[in-house]
Amino acid sequence: MIQIKDLSHSFGKNVVLEDVNMEAKDASILGLVGINGAGKSTLLRLISGVYVPQKGTVTYDDKSPLEAETRRDIFLLPDDPYYTNSTTCNELFSMYKNFYPDINRETFVEITNHFRLPKNKPIKSFSKGMRRQVFVALAFAVSPKYLLLDEAFDGLDPLARMMFKEKLKELIKEKGSTVIISSHALKELEDFCDSYVMIDSKHIMSSGSMLEKSMDLCKFQMAFTKEINEMTFSSLPVKSLKIVGRFATIVLEGDEYDMRAKLEALSPAVIDRLEVNFEEAFIGDIDKRIRGGEING
Amino acid sequence: MAEYFIYHMKKTVVRFIVMALMLVMLVNTTVVNVYNYMRGSQVNVSLAIFTIFGILAPAVVTALEFSQFMNRRNLDTWFSLPISRKDLFIVHFVNGAIQLTASVILGAILAVFKISRHPELDLKQSIPFFFLMIGAMLLIYMLYTFFFVSANNVFDGCAFMTGSILIPFSVFSIFRNFYLAFNNKSGIFGGYDKLAKIPFDGAGIFSVIAQIGSRYESLIEPVKKSDVFDDVYYESFATSTPEISIPQASLWTAICIAALAGAVYIFMTKKTESVSGISESWFGYRILIPLCAGAALQTTAMTASALRNNDVLSIGLSVAGLIPAFIGIFVAYIIFRRGVKFKISDLISTGAILVFYVISLLIFRAVLG
């Protein structure tokens, strides 16, 4: 289990993370979400031992990632990993074999073959997506106990994403690995992450089960015979609202039946329930914070 | 660590081959030269290429070995791998040291072979030269490594390595100027004989390698060489051979070993997040800029003060010297800060240089004027 206690970190006077407490359970996938500059990558660097925490601790079953021995069980796939101008797939594998002696060549070859990646061409000449595929192949070949992925889906095509998700599920099933994945592609996270941590304004804004987060919300589409505006819904716990003429699409926080009853009290001509996804929950939370900031400001 | 060390050696073998080949080619063309004259021939031996290699090659090797740790993007990978920073440092430092040593050994083998083809040359005296040269080169490598890893990016690393030459030179220059002014009333145009008694000079560790070079260069001159014009036989140059200053060599050996320990410490404790940013090290621009500027201005003050009976020229030179110096300081701080966002400490430092200049000027005018 990865445990983070009272973690704070700043760059000069710029506080990036403050009193972060969280844990990632064994054999699970934790999604790390947040807007640009929220501190996701910094948190991953602190978790992987790249940064030394200025305050607080990160432990892997009570062991510090600052010890090289602990990092034998950790693999960080950064947003922009290291390779030289001449590094090829095979050379990259050879380099990582020095650090992860149990790295599986068969897995690496299988994935790189699947994506038809040239083995002896410099990675530098690859497209962004292809480069990502090489490092994803490497991550699965290492098959670590703790896999930390920064913007893992960035540049991957839908087929690659699908394979990636399947491989992650296999890794967890077979090795009981713990995966922390940060991504902007929130829709990609919701169908395979067990839990999430949402970072915003230096703190963990919310965390918990992905499913529960989505279930806390309900989404409706309505048509009205009368004129409507934002004030029409001001008494409701609105997460997001879109009004086009007399049509409104609204995401509300709370029990679906209670919310439906409250909306019906507004006398819509038609009301339909829609599926709510994690991205809407995330956007709703961030939007609420920004609006709150504007009001307070 | 052993696996990565072997991997890294293999990965950098091309660099070693290029470096060694360059040295071997230069050794082949410069070490032994035979000049044929009408009445005979003269053999000249020059081992200067080893001295030049011993100063320049460690700088190149240091930059190549450690530049990949000067990029924050790379460090996400390097520092998350299961290898300690200390082991990473050792692998890269030792690999560089081996490549430098092996290059000199290859060059030395060729040099010995070429010298041995001339029985009139005293071959055996060249052997300690190569050992001492390797030692001095590795000391320089330690010093360069310290300055390079003190920086946060490759450009600053190279600038700081240059600082390893400029810092001792500036310190010595400031000391020399005061020493000459107070010990010789005739000013800057004499008194070097007294100064020469001091066993330390401004070239620092480079002086040590130069002393080794010049001492052994003479020793392997032909012991029985025919002077083509006067038919004089030289028995040996041993009596006129420059000595290696043992106190100077000892001091710089200690400094370089301390520098290596410092380099390991800096590498192990450096904040990853500061890499690729501005280099705030005290062993870099913070010391380098005021020290070099101070030394340059102090020399101007001394020169101006020494121009007696000509106050117009003296004062004019004193003031005119400030302009290029402060333009230089301004440019240096722009390079340091990557822009014109100077910090208060930079302004204080610049003010301190000015105060030092004025005090130096007053002292020199009182002593020399």
Summarize the structure in short.
With 297 residues, chain A is of the alpha/beta class.
Please provide a written account of the structure.
The complex is a heterodimer of chains A (297) and B (369). Chain A has 297 residues and is an alpha/beta fold. Chain A has 2 domains: 209 residues, Rossmann fold, CATH 3.40.50; 81 residues, Alpha-Beta Plaits. Helix content of chain A is 34%, strand content 29%. Chain A has a 6-stranded mixed sheet with strand order 5-6-7-3-8-9, sandwiched between helices. In chain A, strands 11-12-10-13 form a 4-stranded antiparallel sheet. Chain B has 369 residues and is mainly α. Chain B folds into 2 domains: 277 residues, no CATH class; 86 residues, no CATH class. Chain B has 14 helices and 4 strands. In chain B, α5 packs antiparallel against α10. The longest helix of chain B is centred in the N-terminal third of the chain and has 32 residues. Chain B is flat. Chain B starts with a helix and ends with a helix. At the A-B interface, β5 and α2 of A face α1 and α4 of B.
Q: How would you spell out the order of helices and strands of chain B?
A: HHEEHHHHHHHEEHHHHH
The share of residues in helices of chain A is 25-40%
Shape of chain B: flat
Tell me the greatest interface.
A-B, 29 and 20 residues
CATH architecture of the largest domain in chain A: 3-Layer(aba) Sandwich
Q: Give the strand order of the largest sheet of chain A, numbering strands 1, 2, ... along the chain.
A: 5-6-7-3-8-9
The CATH superfamily name of the largest domain in chain A is P-loop containing nucleotide triphosphate hydrolases
Poorly predicted sequence stretches spanning 5 or more consecutive residues of chain A: none
Tally of extended strands of chain B?
A: 4
Q: Count up the helices of chain B.
A: 14
Unreliable spans of chain B are 231-239
